[in-house]
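Subject: Interface between my chains keeps coming out wrong

I've been trying for a while to get a sensible model of this assembly. When I model each chain on its own everything looks fine, but I need the whole thing in one frame so I can look at the contacts. Pasting all components below, labels as-is. Any help appreciated, I'm running out of ideas.
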Amino acid sequence: MKKKTRPARKRRRNIGSVPGTMTYTGVRTEEDFSIEVIDYDRENCTHTVFDNVEKVLPFCTGNKTTWINVNGLRNVKAIETLGKHLNWHPLVLEDIVDTYQRPKIDEFEDYLFVVFKMLYYQEDRLVIEHLSLVMGQGYVVTFQEEPQQDVFDDLRKRIIENRGRVRNEKSDYLLFILLDAVTDHYFLVAETLGEKIEDIEDQLFEGGDKADLTRDILLLKKETLRMKRSVFPAREIVSRIEKTDSDLISAHIENFYRDLYDHAIQVVEYIEMYREMIMSLMEMYMSTISNRMNNIMKVLTVIATIFIPLTFIAGVYGMNFDNMPELHGKYSYFILMGVMLLIFIGMLLYFKRKKWL
Amino acid sequence: MKKKTRPARKRRRNIGSVPGTMTYTGVRTEEDFSIEVIDYDRENCTHTVFDNVEKVLPFCTGNKTTWINVNGLRNVKAIETLGKHLNWHPLVLEDIVDTYQRPKIDEFEDYLFVVFKMLYYQEDRLVIEHLSLVMGQGYVVTFQEEPQQDVFDDLRKRIIENRGRVRNEKSDYLLFILLDAVTDHYFLVAETLGEKIEDIEDQLFEGGDKADLTRDILLLKKETLRMKRSVFPAREIVSRIEKTDSDLISAHIENFYRDLYDHAIQVVEYIEMYREMIMSLMEMYMSTISNRMNNIMKVLTVIATIFIPLTFIAGVYGMNFDNMPELHGKYSYFILMGVMLLIFIGMLLYFKRKKWL
Amino acid sequence: MKKKTRPARKRRRNIGSVPGTMTYTGVRTEEDFSIEVIDYDRENCTHTVFDNVEKVLPFCTGNKTTWINVNGLRNVKAIETLGKHLNWHPLVLEDIVDTYQRPKIDEFEDYLFVVFKMLYYQEDRLVIEHLSLVMGQGYVVTFQEEPQQDVFDDLRKRIIENRGRVRNEKSDYLLFILLDAVTDHYFLVAETLGEKIEDIEDQLFEGGDKADLTRDILLLKKETLRMKRSVFPAREIVSRIEKTDSDLISAHIENFYRDLYDHAIQVVEYIEMYREMIMSLMEMYMSTISNRMNNIMKVLTVIATIFIPLTFIAGVYGMNFDNMPELHGKYSYFILMGVMLLIFIGMLLYFKRKKWL
Amino acid sequence: MKKKTRPARKRRRNIGSVPGTMTYTGVRTEEDFSIEVIDYDRENCTHTVFDNVEKVLPFCTGNKTTWINVNGLRNVKAIETLGKHLNWHPLVLEDIVDTYQRPKIDEFEDYLFVVFKMLYYQEDRLVIEHLSLVMGQGYVVTFQEEPQQDVFDDLRKRIIENRGRVRNEKSDYLLFILLDAVTDHYFLVAETLGEKIEDIEDQLFEGGDKADLTRDILLLKKETLRMKRSVFPAREIVSRIEKTDSDLISAHIENFYRDLYDHAIQVVEYIEMYREMIMSLMEMYMSTISNRMNNIMKVLTVIATIFIPLTFIAGVYGMNFDNMPELHGKYSYFILMGVMLLIFIGMLLYFKRKKWL
Amino acid sequence: MKKKTRPARKRRRNIGSVPGTMTYTGVRTEEDFSIEVIDYDRENCTHTVFDNVEKVLPFCTGNKTTWINVNGLRNVKAIETLGKHLNWHPLVLEDIVDTYQRPKIDEFEDYLFVVFKMLYYQEDRLVIEHLSLVMGQGYVVTFQEEPQQDVFDDLRKRIIENRGRVRNEKSDYLLFILLDAVTDHYFLVAETLGEKIEDIEDQLFEGGDKADLTRDILLLKKETLRMKRSVFPAREIVSRIEKTDSDLISAHIENFYRDLYDHAIQVVEYIEMYREMIMSLMEMYMSTISNRMNNIMKVLTVIATIFIPLTFIAGVYGMNFDNMPELHGKYSYFILMGVMLLIFIGMLLYFKRKKWL
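Reply #2:
Try treating it as a single job with all components included. I did that and got this:
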């Protein structure tokens, strides 16, 4: 119980530097860097992985739709090269590698810049990963900290195997299914949270005396706060995309974004509900402690209330006065023992009636 | 008390699938499937139940108003057939069979898509059932998980027996009375909730010591949270229908939707009120526990405070010193007993005055 | 304390019936029914009471302003006759006799329909009565459950005796003074609530140990919740009348409605303030209980801490060892008694310093 | 502690009277009535006090700017005379003498009517005084309940001695400095409140056991609630004046109102902050009580836990069995005493380690 | 623990003075006053420090961009001279030296006036410093209470060494990087707050019994309240600058202000999150105290429950009745001791099973 479960503090925002300076603020230390390119249209689809940004640049300008997935944010140089090639604003580049950037959307004339957070549980700890997406005419570029394959894995297959309508659509639909995949994962995380809450409920009502749940509840509450901070802005962002009058999003795609918006609201509602339930948990726990204390006090009171008067009586007849007539009766002792027994039984009945036993 | 009252967890949203994929996410396992068609105009009315979707399709295109009530969401195929015949968007079809979809309204050019939740208590447990309604020119199609007859039963009779104005109106009025019937049931559920709260109140004030109400209150709170999540969006949905500028809703029907809106607000107010009352309940319960502890402590304190000093005195005269003059007086023992009695009575009076007895 | 103070449950909304069906949902069982008509203009004023609705109908169409006050909602038939004569919407008629209808305003072309709640205390219980008002060109019709004379009594006299400006104004001013009279009564109710809160405060701080205030506070809280639900919508309703662009309200009357709006806000503020105070009361009560427990514990601790060690000492010299040299000194007993006295005094001083005595 | 600190209840609004009826609802009983007139322009300034309203009327129509300060609201007749002379609406006159009127602003074509509350502490009690201001072309009339000189004293001198820009400006600037003076006083009141909170904090942490702070905290909370109700509307009122398009406020004065608006927001923020701190205080107090109880329990537990077993041992060797070999050893008594000492010391060490001592 | 950690009260707003009067309301007593001027364009840059305001005036009117940094607000005269030279409104001058002024923005035709608060921790205490910025065509003037070099230090170097784009931009960009530097410091402060919270958490769960954390938590809460009051308005201010239609902010700079707005929101979110966590802390602390009390009570109950009955039995056989047959058996004593041992062990097992040991 003495082990710190808190992750190492690391909140080094790039304070004091020139605005537009690209500084990686994440916790990854590996130099892993790879760029995955999926280039497709209705008929064809190529899938290649590069480790050099120069080879990627030609893809951006074809007629096909291109998904460029950059894994690893430490290679600031490469990201800058890509960004300059595609004419992005310096502040966009800064935010791509700043893992403390909160979720947001910035609309530019030629492209949309979206910051999202990917959430998943890893070894029972909530991990929040920074994800940036830039969508322009004919391309979507995604930036992740780590090659966390599972979130986009299914989606990749869907494009290559030409399932669904993705191959018939443009980059606006690609952006939608990317965001949709991330949002779907929010549900998994919310579910895990729900299960954790129910586990604590079970412990509360069945686990008996042993555990101090204060810490568990506190940790759960902090997890919910972090989750909320990452997920809540998603709602606003999706709504902004749906209602944008940018030419980048074509009208017939808006239905999909409206659907995504519904999902975002639903996750937010789940988290709000869990927040309320955690607050209740704490109250419940307090009342459980009080109930337990009540029971302890009852035992003490019953024992003390029964035996203290009896002990007093025994004390009386242990006194050494010369003249204590009762002591000399032949059956005095047995009579006294009888009286004590009656007192004992009477008190038991009294407590029974008071429901203390 | 060890039995788990929690329903089996089942939250399998269709994560990772292509948007527009129809996946049934409910808990029903029966293959029951039936389609009920009520086709009516001012003069005539037919009522038929089919188990094959093909036979239903011709009804959609007559001059009459048609209510198609689909029971059972597992037959995804049939629902798709119907949807395609009526030209619905794939996302609509996905939401019809996704029982986790929250209440919402989507307006399309030719039809309105409404998701509602039906609420009822079954064996003291709150059941929330998924209900989708699609209203187009000349038809309303409703989709339910289970043939839960009672909600729409009365309404069915009303159409067949030509009570009220329904036979003189179009599908916009039909949608209204369907939503109205569901909303009316919300009141029943709210009432049951109110009664449960009053039961706990009674237990709190009259039921004495025995029960630990913590769990009951927690369960009630969770029920209210679930209710809230299902009912609150209804308000917004009805308001959207009332204010729509779609041609599907004719102007003279808006008064009815305004009335429905009033009802929706009223349910929401009830639930909010019950929420506050449940929060108070917990507080009350805590104060009741504290009061009880107080009473236990008083008993203990009175007994201990009276007898501990007396026992001490008895102990003193039980000592074996050679020279203890008091022991040898003829009436010493009786005098001491008198003194003890005075102490006893004095203390009783003291506690009486302090209102501890 | 075992008597149930809760009124009989009766929440039978007319669930499942055709919209527009008039069903009386109140609790009155008397068949009392009367219609009071005050017909006035600048010069003349007549005041008649009828028990037959037919005789009332001619009044509605004169040049004078007519106030028709219907007492008793059980006579659904008569109300329907009146409503049809004046061309009201069926939903209006339904709401007039539905006592569960929340306060609201509906604007129609020819008339305004307002639902308000009249509040008063009867034998220490808060009574909430349903009041509907329909204002058209030249008339205001009011519907009450019971001939609760006092609210409108003063107003009736004012019209007959031609006090104030009412005889010089039209039905829009009449509606204003009717709503004003009801709102004025809200203040009386709020005042009574304030006094009840102060009574509990007094009991809390001066009433000593005896009472368990939990229940009283809970009842007060529920009363406030009910009050809030009845009074809060009034604010919105009055504001809607003030800002209406209906021809029914003439411009120079708007100042009066603005004033009424001020009053409505003020009542709402009072109730909100009382709500907060009740919440504080509960907290205060909890802290008072804790304080009391503290005091009980102190007494117990002082007594036990002083006498337990002394009893031990006495116990030691009550042992029967052969060789206990102290026992045989001539003054041993007196010395020991002195030592015990010193211990006793020392402890008293210690507790004095700790402020436990 | 038994003395009631609550002021006498007096909430007699003029319920049931004709709207526009002037009824003084304050608590003053003195018949004091005086009218102070300051008439000024850039060059000249006269300052006169009258007790008759007739003499004041001519001032209203000069070219100069006139400040008429009416002290005492009981003289309803005089106020009516003044109001009629200046053509004010009857509802304005009603509100001037209705001390329960909440702060508000009413804009009329020729004048602005503002209700404010003056706050000050008198003998440690918060006094809230009704202040009405009517600003028209060339005049500002203020109505106070009592000649509370200090609030406007400084301001009066400033006009007479021609300090600041007031003599160069019109009545719109005069209104500003009047409201500014009142708002400045809000800060003094907020400060006093802040000091009271800090006093309770000190008592909480340093004052030891003696005091029951529950009541003090409750009184503070009620004071804050009253303060809030009086001060919060000021923000809205000033904002309305700043943004008015009435000709009465000239454009170059708006900067001053914007500044006043800033001040109003600041006071509101202070009060909100104090409210939160008072809520914390209650929590802190509860935790302090619990901590204290903990300490009392520790003392009791230590004493009881040490001596109860020792007393038992002494009891054993006080038994009168014939055959108890230990009793007859020569050093038995001393050995036992040693053992008891060891137990005593051992327990002390144990509690030391548990940090109970 | 008796030391007051509260800073000396000093809230002397300039109450009662003429609006526009410059009164320094801060706590600095040093007469330090210096003016630092950085005058730059794309090619050149000069950096000079003056102690006389007259020498500074010529800089304001060059073609270059000028940053004038005034340290020390006591020299009201000099500030007035500067302000009059640049044609500022008297209320602006008043607010520059009024350290109680809350953060705000005022837009004038020729200049923007911004009030911000600089936050930093000094010896573990939160210091809030008043900072005013006036931005006009070609200049930004900043006013600080103290030459707190670190906040702007890095920025100063950046201008002189021509890093970043600042030398290529106008005063609108200069204002941005100044506000950006202050906002960056908010993150540092929020981080420190976060660490303090985690320290208390650690103490709560690991630090054992000794500390009373009530006071620490209260101080933390007050710190958060002060922080909130200083930081929250920043969000609104930056948003106002971004959306202004003043010519002073050129369009291509707006992206930077949007970025700054993101940062401001992020800080606000942090502080809100910490506020919630502090509220949880208090709850946790209460539950920890209750848990501890539970444990103390358990020890007491176990000891008392075991030994009180045993002591009673010993008492019985210490009585002096003539006829107590048990006393005379040869092995009576040993049998009784065995029985007592069995009772002792039985009780231990019982408590073991109840998990009290």
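Reply #3:
Confirming on my end. The helical segments of chain E are 76-85, 90-97, 149-160, 171-206, 214-243, 254-316, 332-353.
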